[in-house]
Amino acid sequence: MVEKKYKNKEALVAELHEKLGSASAVVVTEYRGLKAGDLVKLRRSLKESQVEVYVVKNTLLRRAAAGTPSEAIVGDLAGPTAIAIASGEAIDAAKGLAKNAGDFDPFNLKGGIIEKSVLDANGVAAVAKLPGKTEMHGQFAGALEGFVGEFVFLVEAVVREFAGLLEAQAEKAGAAA
Question: Are residues 111 and 147 in the same domain?
């Protein structure tokens, strides 16, 4: 994301309020010591996960978060804060942020809200280890396919056994006649 220039603070607060209200995930980070070039790399790497990173003053962030679920995590912020707002898959956003927290040493997770659940830094890192929706759908389809295949095999076995019994009865009846 290219850093936008805001004509006034009200426009920034209004935009952040709208994004915070509709976000699937919001993660607050401390970026103390992060170089400008690293911040650009971070933004680019998170873009594919539909995550926007804002560096904003804590007082403006508190105003923007008022009346949104994010209000719970911005109340006691101190120091240089960046906020990551995800509009796409929440788990993908958490994965991207946790990965980048490891890649950029001064970038520390403070906490967040993922799917309306308030989490601390450890909670965000734990969510990042979970499989995403696409991966879970694949696992479910694989499990379902295995179950259906096993069921079909069992039904075929019962039908084969029944056919064998009918054939034996027919032979027995033919031999008696």
Answer: no
Residues 90 and 162 occupy one common structural domain: no
Write out pLDDT tens, residues 101-131: 666 666 677 888 887 778 887 887 788 787 7
Number of domains in the chain: 2
Please tell me whether residues 115 and 154 are part of one structural domain. no
State the DSSP H helix or E strand holding residue 151, giving kind and residue range, or none if neither: helix 133-176
Say how far apart CA 82 and CA 1 lie, in whole Å. Answer: 14
Burial of 58 (0-12, 13-18, 19+ CB in 10 A): middle
pTM of the predicted structure, to 2 decimals: 0.68
- Joined together, the tokens standing for residue 115 give 């799917």
Q: Which structure tokens are listed for 130?
A: 């979970």
Q: What is the largest CA-CA distance in the chain?
A: 103
2 in a structural domain: no
